């Protein structure tokens, strides 16, 4: 794992130069960054966020999440399977990020030190921004702005009840009811974002050849997710080094969270929109051509199930690296657990 933050203080003294992992042109992809970078809360504090994120990642992209020159093609804004697939994907992600924002308020409250408090305050802002750019992109796709919030709630009602609500309730038990900061970090880093990050990577790869605006929105949110995953992993690693007696309690939280994800029907919702994407992809095969969604595989040659299964494989690969970094056994992700209550 590579440490890309050798001397933040000297970098800041020279002026607001974005850190390479937050710079739009030099940041790695989400999977590589989450597996290779080593960042802690002291590296990604409030000055870092202001200089490297607000004035770096988001330069010229702060309002919509994409540059003004990155546009939505006309065909994607017209009714059809591609439009419907993207509206569902970004609508659901917008709601998930809104819930994440609200949950993170508890992390700020119970953070044990200033570095952790500042980091989670910035993550709260990141997630609120993600929710907004996903939501506003639906307007760029032709959805009416006046009824947008209500429309998202209606569209995602079943997804919220069956997928998001159980995860939200579980997280609240850890961070609000038990006020267990380290456990909450494990829930976010390993269970929530650890599972959702590869799906975000897939989203960026899918939409980049079809819509410059959509691809840039996905790219910007992925750069943030790298930071969230790596810093959380460092917080947990350092916590367990300082308090090794906490190991089993952390592992219990992870087991319960993994079991919860195994029980909720997220695949059902993802496959539905991937089937819509498949239809739309076939209609616009000429635009996609030989574009490879991963090395050696043309996107046109993939199926909904293959894309979903690849995202799951990325989840496993990323988890293996992060768990090793934290000094935790990988088999806990497959261990049986009592149902989360």
Q: What features would you describe in this structure?
A:
This protein is mainly α and 341 residues long. The protein has a single domain, classed as Orthogonal Bundle (Ribonucleotide Reductase, subunit A). It has helices at residues 8-13, 30-36, 46-57, 74-77, 81-110, 114-140, 148-155, 157-177, 181-207, 212-242, 247-263, 266-283, 285-288, 304-326, and strands spanning 292-294, 297-298. Strands 1-2 form a two-stranded antiparallel sheet. A hairpin with a 2-residue loop joins β1 and β2. α10 (212-242) runs parallel beside α14 (304-326). The longest helix is centred in the middle third of the chain and has 31 residues, at 212-242. The relative contact order is 0.13.
Instruction: Please tell me the total number of domains.
Output: 1
Count of distinct strands: 2
In whole angstroms, how far apart are the ends?
Answer: 36 Å
CATH superfamily membership, which one?
Ribonucleotide Reductase, subunit A
The proportion of strand residues reads: under 5%
Query: If you consult CATH, what is the topology?
Result: Ribonucleotide Reductase, subunit A
- What is the level 1 CATH name? Mainly Alpha
State the helical fraction.
55-70%
Widest sheet: strand order? 1-2
Class per helix and strand makeup: mainly alpha
The 3D shape can be described as: globular
Spell out the key features of this protein:
341 residues; mainly alpha; two-stranded antiparallel ribbon; disordered C terminus; 69% helix
